[in-house]
Amino acid sequence: MKISIRKKIFLAFAMFLVISGLIWLQSYRSQYILNQKIQIIERKYELFNAILEARRYEKNYFLTFDRKNIDQTLTYVNIAENSLRSILTKYGKYTLAKNLDERITELEEYKDSLVNLLKLQKNGHLAVPGDFIQLIQKQGRKITSELEKIVKKESQFTRDLIRKSKMIHLIALLPVFILSILVALFLIFNVDRPLKTIGNAIIKISRGDFQNIPEIHTGDEFESLVTSLNSMIKELNKRNKELVQAQKLASLGRLTSGVAHELNNPLNNISTSVQILVEELEDDDLEYKKELLIGAEKEVERSKEIVKSLLEFARERSLTLKRTYFKNLVNNAIKRVKSQVPDNITFKVEVPDDIQATVGPLGIERVLINLIVNAVQAMKNGGDVTIKACKQESNSGFCFQVIDTGEGIPEEIITKIFDPFFTTKEVGKGTGLGLSIIYGIMEQHDGKIKVSSEQGKGTTFTCFLPFDQPE
Ligand SMILES: Nc1ncnc2c1ncn2[C@@H]1O[C@H](COP(=O)(O)OP(=O)(O)OP(=O)(O)O)[C@@H](O)[C@H]1O
Ligand SMILES: [Mg+2]
To answer: Where do the CATH 3.30.565.10 domains begin and end in the chain?
Structure first.
């Protein structure tokens, strides 16, 4: 059964309320009984003390035969009787001694005997019969011992009640403890984890990685949140593609003017050379004519080079995928550029042998060659080109870097370097298509390229490539 988070929280809250309510009720009941017991004990001590006082005067009478002692005894017996009756009416339900009626009868019998004794005294019978004395003493003793028992029993019960109440409070903590753990676990699994997954996905999105969030099947608000976020990501991807398309159209304009400008220069040079040759056809300065022809050939070569780069840039490359060791691609790329690299430049390769990925090998080799050539061109006074690679923690792909110790890229142009025809190189040295070609190849591989640079210290191009290409 799938329950929404709101219902789960409500359930946990309701359980907390029920358990706390039960604990509170139990505690209130114990407190109430305890309060009654304390009052009963106080009353019973008063009663017990009254009986003790009565017995003291009774003993005094039998020693002195002074009438006043019987009066005093009767006074205390009456006090005792009154308190016993009030205990019975007020706390009868809570007192442990269930046969308090019998105690009242005993008290009354004791009182009657005392009244009879008083009568004997008044009639002038000073010698009290021995068995009458014994009866009174026996009755007195019985009441005293019965009441003592009751008081002791009540105190014992109260002590037990306090102990029990402590135990109940301790035991009641157990369900609260278990419920707290359950609530904590619920929060971790049902709230914290989905929130982390969604949080990570949003961080990825903010980095430009518009991948769908893995679906969760909790049946609650998080599941619908993930579904909504995924449709948002789909929409963002669509918008992104539209934006790229718009950017492509914009760069097409820049491209056209770039092509016109780039091809215009060599064509002008060729045209000037040919014009001179035509005009001075009769002239026999062969050396000069040869020079013009070689110049024209060079310009033709340059134009061809521009057209080749343009074709490469514009081509809809079809990827021929192959499982390839990345280190082999690095070694091939270095071999291909080595002849154009001056001696004051050193290559350092820190690439593990076991990085293998399914890529278009020619495309990735082109990426490496273009990056290495740019690095070499940025180090007029020599330096190091380091090529590093390492697997990603997620194990979905690997990163590689081409690091140079060259002049660096000024901050104001760093956002433009991937634009087609953007170059800072002097006319004839660069077409400005190298990085835009790289960008296209990386995108085709579902990869990424980033640049970081510090002027005067060097530049690092960092690329990410997945191990596998989607079918
Ligand atoms: N490693 C680097 N160090 C410094 N600047 C760089 C580096 N790589 C690229 N750049 C800058 O980016 C610009 C564009 O590079 P890109 O490779 O696209 O074109 P290019 O090298 O100028 O010409 P092409 O590659 O077509 O011969 C370069 O002109 C240069 O200013
Ligand atoms: Mg270049």
So the answer is: 317-471
